[in-house]
Structure formats: C-alpha cells, structure tokens
Design goal:
Blueprint (H helix, E strand, L loop, with lengths): L2 H17 L1 H18 L31 H13 L6 E6 L14 E3 L8 E9 L5 E18 L14 E7 L17 E3 L14 E3 L1 E3 L4 E7 L4 E8 L3 E2 L3 E6 L4 E6 L4 E4 L1
Parallel strand pairs: 9-14
Antiparallel strand pairs: 1-4, 2-3, 3-4, 4-5, 6-7, 8-11, 9-10, 10-12, 12-13, 13-14
Subcellular location: Periplasm
Keywords: Cell projection, Cilium, Flagellum, Periplasm, Signal
Organism: Cupriavidus oxalaticus
C-alpha cells in the first residue's frame, strides 16, 4: 500500500474517535482528491477534427434564370420620363405581365391610356409594329415622395393665407389630392375660398387669389417696352386678383385688356 495512504488512514482513525465518523468521511474524500492530484495523471488528449470548408460558391446568390423583358424595361423608362417634371423622388415598380413574357419586339412603344396619370397604380400599354403587331398592357406602381403643405390652423372663407398658416409634410403624391400644393409660391396672395380644417392638405381648388383691384377703381395703366414706358389712367370694369386679366376703360373711352400687377397698376398686354 502507498505510504501516503497508510498515513492517511491512521490520521483518519484518530480523527474519527475524536470528531465522529461523518466528519472523518469528509476528510477522507478530501485526502483522496489530494493524492489523485499528486499522482500527476496525464491529461486527456484532444484529437483535432478537421473542419470541412463549404463548397465553393455555396453562399453566393444564384443567378436569375430570367432574362430582362425588353417590353417591361421600356415601360419603366417610359414612366420615369413621364414623371421627370414632378416634385420629389420617383420610384417605379413594373409587375410582370399576367400573360407571361411579351413576344419579342425590337422597338416596344409604351403609352398611357387617355386621361391616365403617370403616378399611383397605372396600366401602361405597349404596342409593337412589324409583321405581327401586338398590344399588351402592364401594371405598374409609381410613387412620388414629395413635400406638401397643410393648414396649421382652421381657415375661414376669405381669410388670407400666410406662411404662419401652413406646415410642410412629406408623403406620396399618389395618395394625396390631385390639386395639393407642393410649392409655397402657389400660396402667394391666396385667400381661402372655402373653409379649410386644421391639418387638411392645402389644395388649389380650395383657394383663390385675393382681390387686388375693384370694379370702378382708378388705376395706373402702363405700356412697357425695352426702352420706354407710357402711363395713363383708367377705371377697372370688374374685380380682379393679382396676375389676372382685367378690362380697363381709359379716359378717352377706349376699353383695353391688361394684367393686374398690383393693387393700383394694370399693364397692357
């Protein structure tokens, strides 16, 4: 027997007589652990396992088996051209034709049906000439993210609209009223034609220009050229707003048409 083990047993015998067998068993377990550590058992060997590399191209996106449809690409270009003058950021999504890919066509010619708008959900026709002409329709969604203006407070009929009465918002032109105001310059000199609730989009059909000249008012009538200006006086024959055309009777009785420049000046056209 290992001398260390005999010494441990003698020590445990004396400890058990003084402190009881349960505590002696605890001490025995601790001693055995110490002896095991002293024996210097060889650590377990770990055999490395080679990691298998993924196959080349395993995570690469698979190439699309569908080639670009010339008719569909032509519709996208057409809609981008049609919306080039709109305010805001334009995005176009053209759905694949429900009847499958369009027949081959060297020069597809997209068109919009009469009265259709080039934004929102639109149906675009594509015609192709040649020996076997055909016409197909494709569905598209055109979004125009733009700034527009709403009333910051309730406005009553006849109230002038100032910069303090409007707030800017951002939204899709396709979901907004067709006459929505997207340029604050459109509100210059405008008054509410009807009641406008707070938070409502400002629309051109809810506004009118403020009356600048009144019927019977005496105004300055001017004729302007590159190097000259001739002025006279006349009486306005009807109410008119700035920028509108109005008739004016001159002192000699002649009636002329002019453009209202301000509250006291009409420029002959």
């Amino acid at each position: 027997m290992n001398p260390n083990r005999r010494s441990l047993r003698r020590t445990l015998g004396r400890y058990s007589r003084r402190n009881g067998p349960r505590k002696a068993q605890t001490l025995l377990a601790a001693g055995l652990l110490c002896l095991a550590g002293a024996a210097g058992a060889a650590p377990a060997q770990v055999t490395p396992v080679a990691m298998q590399a993924p196959a080349a191209g395993q995570h690469a996106a698979a190439a699309s088996p569908f080639t670009e449809d010339p008719a569909r690409a032509a519709v996208e270009r057409f809609l981008l051209q049609q919306t080039a003058g709109l305010p805001g950021k334009v995005s176009v999504q053209v759905a694949p034709p429900s009847g499958g890919r369009a027949p081959e066509c060297a020069s597809p010619d997209p068109f919009l049906p009469a009265g259709a708008s080039p934004w929102g959900r639109v149906s675009v026709g594509v015609r192709c000439g040649g020996e076997r002409p055909w016409v197909r329709y494709m569905q598209a969604r055109v979004s125009v993210l733009t700034d527009y203006y709403v009333a910051s407070r309730a406005l009553g009929p006849g109230e002038p609209v100032s910069q303090a009465d409007i707030e800017v918002r951002q939204g899709d032109l396709a979901t907004l009223p067709r006459a929505v105001i997207t340029d604050p310059a459109q509100l210059a000199g405008a008054v509410a034609a009807n009641r406008i609730a707070a938070g409502s989009p400002m629309r051109s059909d809810l506004l009118r220009k403020a009356i600048a000249v009144r019927q019977g008012q005496t105004v300055t009538v001017s004729v302007e050229g590159e190097a000259f200006q001739i002025s006279s006086e006349g009486k306005v024959l009807a109410d008119a707003a700035t920028g509108n055309t109005v008739q004016v009777r001159l002192r000699n009785g002649q009636v002329v048409n002019g453009l209202v420049r301000s509250g006291d000046t009409v420029v002959l056209q």
